[in-house]
């Protein structure tokens, strides 16, 4: 194999994250397109994206169903502060769909590539799913600290691809 060929070949992280981003283009969510893929070794076992349940109007058809919740968080100054979080409850998250449509046996020891850092609920589900690694690109600051702590406690490798550039046809301006 020539060195020129090797230099032009994508590494595995880029390859699988590109697939996750392309999967995200199926989402009809106006706020955030999220895609995820399940990988065992170098074998792709499943893909999923965020959206309404099958056969139900999605957010682009019926509008988002935004729920607001308040959470206590420790500030940089060490004092507790209340933080308002908004989330759409019409959609099933990409990670949740991935878990719904893949087998537990396939997930044991596998890696999940997801375009966005999992939220708290998805992180909890992934923590019990059998995966050994979660790789993401875009951060999700609302839950970042507690999700990172959970992954550390579970011994799940949790890493961000900071220098990654998504495929141009999958780019989306993310809203909160």
UniProtKB/TrEMBL annotation:
CC terms in the record's Gene Ontology section: cytoplasm
SUPFAM superfamilies the record matches: Cytidine deaminase-like
Protein name as catalogued: dCMP deaminase
One Pfam assignment: dCMP_cyt_deam_1
Catalytic residue list: 95
PROSITE patterns xrefs: CYT_DCMP_DEAMINASES_1 (PS00903), CYT_DCMP_DEAMINASES_2 (PS51747)
Gene3D superfamilies: Cytidine Deaminase, domain 2
PANTHER family: DEOXYCYTIDYLATE DEAMINASE, DEOXYCYTIDYLATE DEAMINASE-RELATED
GO-annotated molecular function: dCMP deaminase activity; zinc ion binding
Ranges of residues in domain CMP/dCMP-type deaminase: 11-158
Entry's family note: Belongs to the cytidine and deoxycytidylate deaminase family.
């Amino acid at each position: 194999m020539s060195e020129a060929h090797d230099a032009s070949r994508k590494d595995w992280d880029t390859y699988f994250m590109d697939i996750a981003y392309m999967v995200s283009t199926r989402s009809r969510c106006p706020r955030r397109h999220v895609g995820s893929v399940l990988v065992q070794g170098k074998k792709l076992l499943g893909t999923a994206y965020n959206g309404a349940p099958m056969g139900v109007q999605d957010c682009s058809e019926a509008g988002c169903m935004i729920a607001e919740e308040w959470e206590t968080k420790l500030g940089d100054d060490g004092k507790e502060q209340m933080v308002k979080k908004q989330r759409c409850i019409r959609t099933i998250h990409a990670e949740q769909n991935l878990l719904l449509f893949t087998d537990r046996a396939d997930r044991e020891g596998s890696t999940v590539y997801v375009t966005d850092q999992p939220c708290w609920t998805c992180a909890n589900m992934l923590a019990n799913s059998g995966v050994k690694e979660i790789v993401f690109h875009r951060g999700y600051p609302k839950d970042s600290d507690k999700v990172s702590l959970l992954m550390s406690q579970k011994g799940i490798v949790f890493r961000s691809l900071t220098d990654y550039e998504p495929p141009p046809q999958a780019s989306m301006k993310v809203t909160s």
